[in-house]
Structure prediction request, 1142 residues.
Amino acid sequence: MKSKILLTSFIFVFVLSILILFEFHYSTEKEAIERFQAHQLFTSKQLAKELEVYLRYQSQSAEKLSSLVGKNNALLSSAIQEYFQNITTPNVLSISLLDEKGRVSYSTIKGAVELNFGETQFSKWGRNEPNKGEQFISTEVPEIFSSPNNGQSFRVIIASPMFSGTNKGEARSTLKSKEKLPAAYAGLLIAVIGLGDILTPFLQSYDLHKEKQSVWILDEDGTVLYQPTHPEMVSLNIRRKDKSCSECHNSFDYIETILSKNSGTTNYELKETSQKLSSFSSLRYKNLSWKIVVNVPLDEVSKFADKNLLQTVGLVFVLVFTLIGSAFYVFRSKRAKILLEEEGKRLKEQIALQEKVRETEEHYKSVVDNSPDAILIVCEGKIVFVNPAAIELVGATSPEDLVGKTAIQFVHSDDKQFVSNKLYEALTGGITSDKIEGRFIKMDGSIISVEVVGSQTTFNGKPSFQSIISDITEKKKVDLEREVLYEITEGITTTHNLNELLKLIHHSLGKVIYAENCFIALYDRKTKLFNFPFFIDKFDPQPPPMAMKKSCTSYIFKTGKPLLLTQEKFDQLVEQDLVVLVGTNSPSWIGVPLLTPTETIGVLVLQNYETENIYSESDLQLLSSVGNQIALAIERKSIEEAFKNERLLLRTVINNIPDSIYCKDTESRKTLANLADINNSGAKSEEEILGKTDFDIFPKELAEGFFADDQQVIQTGVPVLDREEYVLNEKGQKEWLLTSKLPLKDEAGKIIGIVGIGRNITNRKRAEEALSNERTLLRTIIDLIPDAIYAKDSKGRKILANPKEVYLCGKENEKELLGKTDSDLHPDDKKKGFLEEDERILHSGDSILNIEGELIDKDGQLHWLLGSKVPLRDASGKIIGVVGVNHDITERKLHEKALAKTNEKLSKTVAEKDKFFSIIAHDLRSPFNGFLQFTELMMDEIESFSTEEIIEFSKNMHQSAANLYKLIENLLEWAQMQRGTICFDPNEISVNDMVSQGISTIQQRAEQKGIAISSDLTESFMVYADEKMVNAVFRNLLSNSVKFSSKEGKIIVKAKKLSNQMLEVSISDTGVGMTEKTLNKLFKMNEKVGSKGTDGEPSTGLGLLLCKEFVEKQGGTIWVESEVGKGSTFYFTLPIIKPETK
Prediction:
């Protein structure tokens, strides 16, 4: 029974020991994993920060390069080439320029030029208006841009937008302010950066498990961007569980953990691999949102514990089997021996357990001792444990130098409060602290920069605090050097003044290296002397230009190599007679040559007069890099200064040229204007018109013409030369320009605008206009002078002829006449005389004046001419032709003939006047005599007259009065006709109405004599005549027919058309008729034709004269046919339509 109890107890103790052993193993493994993951998380964050710093540096470099586009594209290409050739890192694979459409205009990869990437992600981003002023980083890298690969498996594109018109710092300031860019989008500058060489060296310097450790990079949606151990996973999306991912993953939970948190730790297991530990952190920069994941197999962390576990388990089993054998032996021995064996067994178990604990502690100690980071444990405020890295970190010689001291005493006084607060927060919160950066003071008093991560632990069963400390001094220095290089690069880009740039470089250098004594010596190849544009020194004054033949500065300049000069090295150079001491001796001296791609231009020197060997090789490397930047800057500033001076000279010449000079881009916007063009544009300064088109400056009708010329030159490349055009000045007056426009081409021969030159020819135009006006005035006078004016050359050919001369020569215009001679124009009887006259004038120089002649024009009209000819001389007085004037005296000749006719007419008028007075004296006296006799008889014997007699006397008196009135009326109308005062007002009138009115007027008298009056008009007739005059004609002719017709007589009025123009009217009677002699006297003023009617009615013949005058006034004629005893017929014609005005 006791044996069973003993055996049961043994089994129980054995099982308990195994459980305790495994529990100790797993707690140890867990603690190791936690510590490793804390370190791994630190590595992940540090890697993310390293990537961010590197991307920021490259982005800023790309931004600075892209900002140069507004100044000069050629300068930008040169700057890119220089930058690409002088960068010290191979991670910049290529730099290219894309225009606004995505076409490669420049690239460090020759095969990329002219390729079009307009549909790529970064090109579309660049053209998007809201993205202006930003930068874009893309992992979609066309293969052509990353060639050669250089082993870079992970590449990105940094795309920086370019804007035309931005000058250096303007682009940067615009980017910062987020304001809308002042100029048009001009394309992209893209830099292809390889990150593979950044990741691998970083892990090798930070981790013990670098052979098994790997890095993943995921974007925010789970797409794999970088996976060196499984490159086939790149571009797959783990979150979306792509098919390839599902084939190798058991679970995707860890991905959600990584993507949902900023940083942390997790683990995962693939189907065909062991479990892995992951630590991750976030990288957010510009448009990037990446997860940096650091992975390591779990067995790499726990293998030492597993190995110890196997050894311990093996030892336990050996002990177990030994104990079992001993038990069997004990059972067969005495009871006392059994008890002794049981005691021995317990002792051995205790020893084994202690051994296991010892081995576990040794393994943990091995991990801690081999850690590159300092690890220390603080318990109750004192340091109780330090690893070798911690001893080395603070410059101690043994753990005893640290154990028992407070950790805070090694923290720099300025950082103690901050570090204490952060560690206290972690301690009280029971969490692992964030990375804390601070400064430690080493045992020798030197200061280092460290990064601390703290976490809770136990030591000897007491709550303690474990800190992992990394020395980041070198990293800080590298970061500071990068910052300094960036400041210098930015200064080179943005600082225009060389002195200001050198001050900025000196100030920046002072952040990372002792630079209180600094100078730059530049070599002038013309004078063969060194001058010192920058010189700062505690002891020595700034020297004048000097040769410095054997100075250290001259030695560096000659060798072209950097020199870190110690006192020992200086003494050696002196012994070799290579250098001599110049100025105050300095125990620390460092100098580098200022190298351009083609030559050494000077030397940069730093020195320290107090401390020996203060400079290091790393300082020499930094200073060499800065020296190269300074050399390039000085060379560039020199080129810019020369370019500026040339540009100033050119601009001064352009501005002072009186001709208008301007440039326009392809959209006809002004890009340059000199003073003359500014004045022509009505502006005060060039800034007022730059960027404007002619439509913004000139009236639309002018601007359209200018724009058409511009576009013709741009589209065809053919210049427009010497075109006259005008602009309006501020007074609205025309300013005339003689303009030429030529295509403006870039280096590739592409037309990018036009150059215009306009010479002000206003004075010339005004002189020409004045001369033209004078010529026009003279020609107008010549053409308007009624005289015929002509000029001939020495060959007798017409060289000028006014319209009168053209008409007289039978031509239609002057052109038909020019070049013709008198032989071509005039008949033989005329031309001979003309030619003789011309010959006499050409040979003698005498004039021929006022010669009368006759000439028949082309219409057959005879012209009388009064001609004069004079010699035509040139400016030297030489006779070169003949000028002639023919005054047309035809009118004068006609007036002379008219005067003779007038005299004849005047004689006739006198006769007519005599006739008029005769009628008044004779014909008016008879009616008055009869009227007076009747009135006298009535006055004396009215009382003895009967009523019938009084009525008879009244009738006779009335008839005498009517005859008198008719006579007076005819006399007045005739007198008006003679004086030309009668009103002539022709219109369309009805002949039928005129006949009816005439008949009605004479109807009563005809009825008294028993005469029948009728009208035989077969249709309505209209004539164009004066109504009053036609009425007078009808009245007189009808009255005469009644007067000379007997009782029972007849009068008939007829009308007929003779043509479409004239109507013939006839009035026939059956009266007494007229003899041939009487007919010949009718219608003549000087003939006496008066005779009495059939009832003794008086007649003067004046009525027929009026009829003749009135009919002819209408354009018609009047005549009569008569036979004695049978009657007479009077005919007259009237126009049917309005006659043409002559």
In short: The radius of gyration is 66 Å.
